[in-house]
Write a structure and sequence with these properties.
Blueprint (H helix, E strand, L loop, with lengths): L7 H10 L7 E4 L7 H11 L5 E5 L15 E4 L4 H15 L1
């Protein structure tokens, strides 16, 4: 089952209600309200080992050292095949 949200706050609220429901978080780095990194920090406060794929259209090398808990960074644009491969890789590592 996949849940999609356009609001990072809404995503966190859904996760907070049932954190064991989710196996993976895919988020964008640049979002209104909570940034992707802030969302990851809040989610990892509840489930520290939840795998995370961070998507970005900007180079993250300058901020990557400050990010913790990111399993993989996926640079935009990407196609469905690359997303599927990344999800399989990340979930394979977490199990």
């Amino acid at each position: 089952c996949v849940d999609t949200m356009t609001s990072s706050r809404e995503a966190f609220e859904c996760f907070e209600r049932n954190p064991d429901r989710y196996d993976l978080l895919i988020t964008d780095y640049t979002m209104p309200e909570l940034t992707g990194n802030q969302l990851v920090e809040k989610i990892h406060a509840l489930r520290p080992q939840l795998p995370v794929i961070m998507c970005s259209g900007v180079e993250l090398s300058s901020v990557i050292s400050k990010m913790t808990g990111i399993s993989k960074i996926l640079m935009k644009p990407f196609d469905m095949e690359e997303l599927i491969k990344t999800v399989r890789e990340v979930l394979g590592k977490s199990r």
